[in-house]
Structure formats: C-alpha cells, structure tokens
Amino acid sequence: MNVSTHKIAIPSILEVGKNNINNVGNLIKKGMFKKVSVCFGDGIYELFGETIKKSLIEANIEIQNIETIVNINFDEISKKAFELPNDVDALIGIGGGKAIDAVKYMSFLKKMPFISIPTSTSNDGFASSGASLLVNNKRMSLPAKTPYGIIVDIDVIKGAPEKFIYSGIGDLVSNITALHDWKFEEENEKTIVDDFATMISKKAVNSFVRTEFKGIKDDLFLKELVDSLTLNGISMEIAGDSSPASGAEHLISHALDKFLENPQLHGVQVGIATYIMAKVQNHRAKRIKTILEETGFFEYVKTLKMKKDDFKKAIDLAPSIKPGRYTYIHVKENQLLAKKIIDIDEILNNILV
C-alpha cells in the first residue's frame, strides 16, 4: 500500500516587524550568506537601494551585482538568471509582486536560495512557490522556488499606496470561497483535499477577519495581513497546487486579465469575485461582506468604475481558464446565478457600473 507523505519547503527566515528595511544584513545572517545578488523592482532602488546596500555591507555580506527588474518577460528573466555571477550564495528580491515573481523564478533556474522582501502586500506571491511571468505576451503561472527567507518592514508596507493593501485583503479573503470550491471538487470525485493545507488556509483567513482594527494602516492589522498571506504560501506548498487559496474567484480574475486592456490589481478583482461566489455558494457571504465593508474595500472599488458586463463576460470565460478543475463556476447553473447576482445585489449595483 502506497502512503502519501509530504516533503515541502518552508522559509527558514521570517521577519515581520518595524525597521527591518534597515536591518536586512543582520536578518539574513543566519543563512550564512557571504555573497549575494540584489534585484530591485522598477523605482524601488531609488527608495531603498542605499539603505539595503549599507545594511548588507555592515553585515560583511558582499554584493556581487545589482539588477533592476523592469518587465517580467520569461525570456528576459531567464537571460538575467544565467548572467548572474557564479559565486553568488543567494538572490535578494525587493519590490512588488512582479519583481518578486521574477527573482523567484531566477532563483529556481539557478537552484539557489531566495530572500523575498516585498514593498507591498497586494497578494500572497511574496510567500508562494509560483511565479507569474509573461510567456509570448501572456501571463502564465510557472513553478518557481519557495523563499528561503521573507523579510517585511511594516512601515514600508504602510507607506505603499492603499490600493495594494486592498488588493491583499481581496486575495486573502478569497480563501473562504476557494476552500469551499476545493471541498466541492472532492465531493464530486474530481480531487482529494489535503486536510493539513485546508487547516492552514482556514487559520490564515479566520485569524485575519477576526482582527480588531481602527484602520487598514494599523500596525497589527498589517502584520496580521502579512502573516496570513505568508500562511497562504505555505498552504499551497503543502497542497502542491494553488487550490487552498484559489478557486472560482481566481478564475474570474484571470478571465478579466485575458480581455481587459487595463485590468485592475489581481487581489481587487479577486475580492469582488469572492463576494459574488460566496453568494453563489451560499457560504459565509455575510462574513465576507462585513470585512470588505469594514476595511473600505467596497468604497475603494467604487472609485474604479469597473463594469458589470466585464464580470459577466469573465464568468462565462472562467471555466475555460482551468478546464481540469471543477469549481462552482464550472456548473452552468451557477454561472447563470452569478450573473443574476451581479444584476440584483445592492452592493454590486453600487460599486460596479
């Protein structure tokens, strides 16, 4: 009898707090790194470059080269990876989701440790093992490397535009509908749910939605958001795919990406789709509504003037994004219900045009 067991990679360094951007060198010392390559997102070096360099030099860590990630084209990122010096012990990626994904994939190609230093929390990508890159001008999810270390400075996250926080909120809350989709797939004998990955994903979102806060830039709120998004990355690593944190709501967002000329942030689209799918599933819709109202997520979305018709089109397209899955949106009746909800729901009528 074959028994399924797990071998997973989890971060060895996890530092979430204040003033961490000034202390990167000391924080990564436990990795025994002597020589590193540092990659900044576009415009990030100007903000934090000298601070990071000073910290690494003071910790006696040699900087072999510095790169700026401007785009996430697969060919260009692959070329950058193999142009890195051969004696580098680790890669450090600093920036938003695109930069982190690029450096994550470079570390995967070079088979070396990767330190993730996000400057915003727009999704759980800073902690996951997948990378979203442009392949033939289309966004594709590629296997990459779980970070060896994650370092987050709460004040840096606080200083980022609020839209990135709202995006992170939307991405995290989607665990609720994603887990329900995963269970639905198992009930229909399409997959086997991993109980431990489920527990981690549940703990991540439940801990977050129960956090008391006065505003979305409260230190405790942001730390809880970062911690929970990090747990998302671990849950997906355990499962071996994105199912614990990605269901129909993510398929709707990916569908929007396919035809919108200027899509909104991933987590923002996901958050709206999560609210729709919670109504379709008849599962914890009230809880999702409460957190999205209390954080100001809905009010922010209203300023974007996103279109009902775009979401309806995305709902029709969503099942084709991952035809191998069987979420609620893969059932025709549920597609019809989702589109009906867009027409009749008071909140959706208020925030979408």
Automatic annotation (TrEMBL):
UniProt cofactor(s): Zn(2+)
Keywords tagged on the record: Cytoplasm, Lipid biosynthesis, Lipid metabolism, Metal-binding, NAD, NADP, Oxidoreductase, Phospholipid biosynthesis, Phospholipid metabolism, Zinc
Domain of life: Bacteria
GO molecular-function term, one example from the UniProt record: metal ion binding
Record SUPFAM superfamilies: Dehydroquinate synthase-like (SSF56796)
Record keyword Transferase present: no
Sections of the chain in a coiled coil: none
Cofactor note (record): Binds 1 zinc ion per subunit.
Record-listed NAD(+) binding positions: G97, K98, A99, I100, D101, T119, S120, T121, S122, S128
Residues noted as binding glycerol in the record, renumbered to the chain: D124, D171, H250, H266
PANTHER family tied to this protein: GLYCEROL DEHYDROGENASE (PTHR43616), GLYCEROL DEHYDROGENASE 1 (PTHR43616:SF5)
Name of this chain's protein: Iron-containing alcohol dehydrogenase family protein
Source organism of this protein record: Clostridium butyricum
Lineage: Bacteria, Bacillati, Bacillota, Clostridia, Eubacteriales
